[in-house]
Amino acid sequence: MGVKVVDFKGDGNAWIVVHDQRLSRGRLRKYVGRDWKAAKLAASHIRVKLAANDLSFVNGDRPQAEPLTLQQGVETYLRERTAFGTMDEATRRNYERLLVRHVYPTLGVKPVTSIRRDDLVRLFEGLLSGSADPGGRKRGKATCRNLLAPIHQAYEWLIVERRMAGLTNPALRLGKLLRETVDKKKRVQPLLPTEQAALLDATRRSSPRYHLLFLIALRTGLRLSECFGVQWADFDLEARTVTVQ
Q: pTM score, two decimals?
């Protein structure tokens, strides 16, 4: 009898393996994925339950062979993760709330074997543009990522643990399309000469101890860490230069 967290297939994914005569086959394997911390925490909870003769962590519901819809597959996956202790109840409820609102109305009844990458791309494009919302409200990329996560994980679970033959994950590599892109150059707004003069005047009067620090930063463009690292020997007053080492 025992509970272990192992890399069952040597691919870096965590599996929880339970050996106990009270189980139907004397053992139980659960696929967790890359979250080894969650797997180890769940394993410790299972040990406590086994000691108390509590087998509630064993979820006997198996996904239907065919046709299994997207909603059935994702909901079964989320229930099993929660029952096994690798996902907290609040996270599950948040995922389900978003899925019920944005995914299940259009893709929920489709078999998992029929959903393609293009289906998910169109879904997210509609959410981002507002065309998928009756009121035309646009959704952010963060919302789309929160929808993508359980779908991606559910497919991995169906493929790896439930061994659904011929099933591929349509959510693979979609995360690249939902990353936030920030143009840092456009966001930088340098101070105008008049603003620089006002800042230096304010520091000279209110914080004379830090006046030189602000002066160096404004005149040289050094990073804050570089400003703190400058020594008097680094200044050449005649050449009006400073050496950064």
A: 0.55
